[in-house]
Amino acid sequence: MRLVAIVPTYRNIRTLPAVLDGLSACGLALIVVDDGSDDGTDAWARAWCEKSSERTLISLPHNQGKGAALAAGLALARQRGFDAALTVDSDGQHRLLDAQRMARAAREHVLLLGKRSESHEGYPAASMFGRRLWALGIRALTGLGVQDPICGLRCYPLAATDGIVCAAGRYAWEEEFLVRCAWSAVEIEELKIETVYQDATQRVSHFGWFDWIESILVFIRLAGVRVFMRAPTGAARGVLARRDRSWRRLQGMAVFVAGVCALCAPLVVVVPTVAFLAWRLHASMLIAVGAAIIVHANAQLFPASIMLFVVVLLALAVTRAARFLCSN
Fold first, then answer.
1. Is 188 in contact with 155 (CB distance < 8 Å)?
2. 6 in the Ramachandran plot: left (φ > 0), alpha (ψ -120 to 50) or beta?
3. DSSP string, 282-317
C-alpha cells in the first residue's frame, strides 16, 4: 500500500524542520501544505522540498485554516495515486515513533485516529474541554464512542473517503470529516499514542475564539442534518460501537434537555419531541422520556428555580449511575 505523509503548517518555522526531517528519515513521501505563513515557512519549506522528488510543497495564497490545508493535501495525494495519507501536525506534538506505528497499522478501508491519554500532566484545559465536548457530539451524531476526536495524528484511507466534502474550513473540519466518514460507512478505529504537550511558554497554538464558534456552528448544522433529514444508514461502527464515558455523558445530557423541555411546555408536546430527539441523537428514549415525565409531574409542586436545580442533579445522577454499564 502506497502511503504519503501530509504536514499542514502555519507559522511553525521553529518546529517544522525537525518534524519533516524525522518523517523523511523514515522513508515516507511527503506533502507539506503551507497555509499562507508569513514567518519564512514557505521559503524554507520550498528549499527543503526541492532536495528530493519524494517531497512536494503546496503553498496556499493566504491563511484559510487547517481544514482547507488538509483538504488540499488529501486531494493531491489522491491525484498522485496514493492509497492512504498520514497527517502529522507541524508543532512537534506527535512523536515520530507513533507516526511510524500508525503508518504500519494503516488499512485501505479504515480511518485510523490517534488516541492520547487524558491523564497526561500538562494537558491544556481548553483542549481537554474541546475533546470531551466533541466526543459527546460525535456519540450523539453517529453512535460511535470516539475518545479523542480532535487528535491531528490520523491515517486517511483515500479511496474509501473520496467524495466526502466538509463545509468547515478550520479546525472543526477534522471532526466534521470524522462524522461524515461514519455516515458513509467508513470504518473508524483508534490507536493509542503518547501525549506530548510542550511548556505553555513554548507551545504555539492558532486556535482562537472564532474556532470555538465554528465548532459550535458545525455541530448545530450536522445535528440539523441528523434530526431533520434522512438518517444516514449502514455505518460501520467496528470496535467503537460500545458504551463508554461519552455514552454516559450523552444520557445525562438527554436528561437535562428533557427536564428543561418539561418545565417549558405541556407534556403532550414534550414527550414525543424528546423521544424523537433521543432516537435521532442516539440517546436512550426511555431515560429521556422518563426524566421528562418525572420533572413535569413535580413542576406544579415546586418553584421553577428549584426544579431546574433538581434537573441538573438528576442529569448528574444518571451520568454517574450509568458508569457500571461502560467498558472503561
1. no
2. beta
3. TS-HHHHHHHHHHHHHHTTTS-HHHHHHHHHHHHHH
Helices (H), 202-266: 209-228, 245-264
Nearest CA among 158, 138, 171 for reference residue 10: 171
Rounded CA-CA distance 328/22 in Å is 34
- Is residue 69 a contact partner of residue 174, using CB atoms and an 8 Å limit? no
Find the angle CA(147)-CA(150)-CA(152) to the nearest 5 degrees. 115
Name the helix (H) or strand (E) containing 112.
Answer: strand 110-115
Of residues 42, 33, 182, the one with CA closest to residue 111 = 182
* Torsion 65-68-74-80 (CA) sign: negative
> Which of 24-28, 36-40, 232-236, 274-278 is predicted with the least confidence, judged by mean pLDDT?
232-236
d(CA 6, CA 305): 52
Buried b (16+ CB within 10 A) or exposed e, 134-148: bbbbbbbbbbbbbbb
Neighbours of 301 (CB within 10 A): 8
CA angle 78, 106, 242 (to 5 degrees): 115
Q: Is the pLDDT of residue 98 over 90?
A: yes
**Per-residue model confidence (pLDDT) at position 207:** 59
Strand order in the sheet with 110-115: 55-59, 29-34, 3-9, 84-87, 154-157, 110-115, 187-192
Cβ count near 126 (within 10 Å): 11
In this prediction the pTM is: 0.89
Place of cell 465548532: 215
**What is the rounded distance in angstroms from the CA atom of residue 197 to the CA atom of residue 92?**
9
Pair type for strands 154-157 and 110-115:
antiparallel
